[in-house]
Amino acid sequence: MNEFQENWDSGDGFDRRGPAGYTLIEILAVTAIAVILVLMTQGMIRSYKRYSIEEVAVQRLKELSRLENIYRHCNDLTVNPEGTYGSYFDLQNAGLVAEIYEQSDERRHTINAFIPFYRLDFVRSVEDLKEFGLKDEEVRMDPYRYLIRAVPLYNPMGLRTFYVQEDGEVYFVLPGIVPRMFPR
């Protein structure tokens, strides 16, 4: 036995190298790495969830736009005698939207909301349309214009507000900017 080995082993049966296992510093380093990975993936998961909720909203708004056009050009005078665009309840009464769906998700993400996490606003008056940036000549061209706005409820994820007009294109407004339409 050399001098180093003699000094290392005290002879009392305990090895100074410690019991088999990890030291406290090794455990803390692994834990810190795991916490960093969890925090990095948490942001990605939140953005994926936000994207999927917004994608459902966009697809449902496109569907509502299609249903609005069907309702307006319906030749049945008992359903739509004036030939105008309808409200959400008009679409339900015409049988285009199932009655189990609700216009708003006020009851916190029920399965019966037409667009989960959102409230639908049907805007049909000329004054309200001007509020969204349409020029006077555009509003006078067609008094039957409409705008459907999907406004997020309980918005901890930063969901965007979406709009659809009779052309079927879905727009959103960037936060903090005067309402202008940006194609999605």
Structure description:
- With 184 residues, the chain is an alpha+beta fold.
- It has one domain (22-183).
- 40% of the residues lie in helices and 11% in strands.
- A hairpin with a 4-residue loop joins strand 3 (162-165) and strand 4.
- Residues 180-184 have low confidence and may be disordered.
Largest sheet: 5 strands, antiparallel
Summing up helix and strand content along with how strands pair, one would put the structural category as: alpha+beta
What does the average pLDDT come to? 77
The main sheet orders its strands as 1-2-3-4-5
Total domain units: 1
Q: For the terminal residues, how far apart are their CA atoms?
A: 78 Å
Helix content: 25-40%
Low-pLDDT stretches are 180-184
What is this structure's SSE topology?
Elements: H1 3-8, H2 24-72, H3 88-93, E1 118-123, H4 126-131, H5 136-141, E2 147-152, E3 162-165, E4 170-172, E5 182-183
What would a concise description of this structure say?
The protein is α+β, with helices and mostly antiparallel strands and 184 residues long. 40% of the residues lie in helices and 11% in strands. A hairpin with a 4-residue loop joins strand 3 and strand 4.
Question: Keyphrases for this structure?
Answer:
single chain, 184 residues, alpha+beta, five-stranded antiparallel β-sheet, 5 helices, 11% strand, elongated, disordered C terminus
